Amino acid sequence: MVKDWYKGGDKVYVAVDCIIFGFDAGVLKLLVFKRRVAPFEGRWSLIGSFVRPDESSSEASHRVLKEITGLDNIYMKELRVYSEVDRDPGARCISIGQYALIRVDEHDKELVESHGAKWYPLNELPNLVLDHGKMVSDALERLRTNAQFYPIGFELLPQKFTIPQLQQLYEVIFQKQFDSRNFRKKLLSLEILKKLDEKDKSSSKKGAFLFQFDSDKYKQIRKKGFSIPLFKNQDVL
Amino acid sequence: MVKDWYKGGDKVYVAVDCIIFGFDAGVLKLLVFKRRVAPFEGRWSLIGSFVRPDESSSEASHRVLKEITGLDNIYMKELRVYSEVDRDPGARCISIGQYALIRVDEHDKELVESHGAKWYPLNELPNLVLDHGKMVSDALERLRTNAQFYPIGFELLPQKFTIPQLQQLYEVIFQKQFDSRNFRKKLLSLEILKKLDEKDKSSSKKGAFLFQFDSDKYKQIRKKGFSIPLFKNQDVL
DNA sequence: ATAGTAAATGTAAATATTACATTTATTTTA
DNA sequence: TAAAATAAATGTAATATTTACATTTACTAT
User: Fold this and answer.
1) CA–C1' nearest nucleotide, residue A204
2) pLDDT in tens, B55-75
3) Pairwise CB contact (< 8 Å): A85 & B55
4) ∠ CA B234-A155-A143 to the nearest 5 degrees?
5) What is the 3-state secondary structure (H, E, C) of B63-85?
6) Domain A152-235 classified CATH 1.10.10.10?
7) Which phi and psi (to 5°) does residue B80 adopt?
8) Domain made up of B10-147: CATH architecture
9) Could you identify which of A18, A95, A201, B101 might form a hypothetical disulfide with A207, taking C-beta atoms 3.0 to 4.6 angstroms apart as the criterion?
10) Which sequence ranges are marked TM in the entry (chains A, B) (predicted)?
């Protein structure tokens, strides 16, 4: 029931749009889809939805993410609200940008295809509808900022990964090369990686040891009151 | 004109609520106001408004902030969207939390009073309507996080301030004492403070030199690709 | 002239970062 | 089965930053 005093307000459409990052074959990719219905039929768009009466914006974005990728329990954070008056010529409609990091190896590729969705390397993105291109560049900036201060890179790698893989990811995110000895030393010094007794031999004869992100340990450290900036000299952007 | 394909969506009320921080008499304060009309007449609330058809959420929050404090050009950032289904029993209404840092010495005190608004020290806050208490604690957390990595403390101090004042502010934000010699050294080493030829004698016979935040220099540094974490060992939270 | 007060300053020890080259483990090939 | 090939793994010395800690300075009030 809507109380009288709300009658002064103007209702608007509220949507979520997901900026979904993945790391595959050494490059950062974004999941976009080709619209099959109006508006913007046939054009590329972020994956989104109206927020339904029975869900929050966060629930809405997790719902569509699951619909398209089959994935639950995804790293997803609010980016910002896009509410410029004329952003959508069809109606007053605000959109909440939600950026997500997923493990490409874990998602349901057939489901993605069946929805007309496709992974594009960030530098080969097609033009997107409305302000979705802006959402992507904002999200990329946010990803870079957050990756400086928090260990979120792990969200983009398989559960088990090698140090060289991790380094490659950070080099792609920050567009910068790191010294492999110093990179390894620094990451291991954070004490948030569990070394496994297993090697990945896909990229060398010697094989590289696999590691897992130790999120319990990370939470402990955070609880004690520390945050972990990955690189001290933050000249990574 | 609303196109047909939007008819599937459900419209909702969209509001902004401002979490307004100030630093006064050595304590962090929040600006809240006593509602004079329904809903929640007589109860304390954040300062907010519906987002109007002709403005973005950012414009809406700057508008109400100006209405109440007389201030323009305020540091204000989106905190997050509060869209839980039952957050407002009167109607489906989502709210965009916007947190702001203002210089208490620059705001229009009479205007604030005339609107029934009042500054409360953070630890003496009255109960607030709806989820506004949660907004405040979220905003405080965000303030602390951001103050670790970015020089935003200056937004809460007068344009001209002393190093001891700056230190006191950071001690309040982080609930932690700093060594005055190291604090001064660290802050000056960032090279974003302009020393003035002027002293503030309000708190000592000797007087303390006044400084200004040099935002041009800070922008230059950022442009070159550096961010500036204020404290290396981020054990400040 | 002296006492009182907060501001300002310096340094040595500990820690973290950087720059840089060789050895190791394994597979493939000769 | 020895040798070649390849990426992974490791160590160290030089530099920079952070930390811990006590005295002097500038000014006002008595």
Assistant:
1) D7
2) 999 999 999 999 999 999 999
3) yes
4) 60
5) HHHHHHHCCCCCEEEEEEEECCC
6) yes
7) -170, 175
8) Alpha-Beta Complex (3.90)
9) A201
10) 12-33
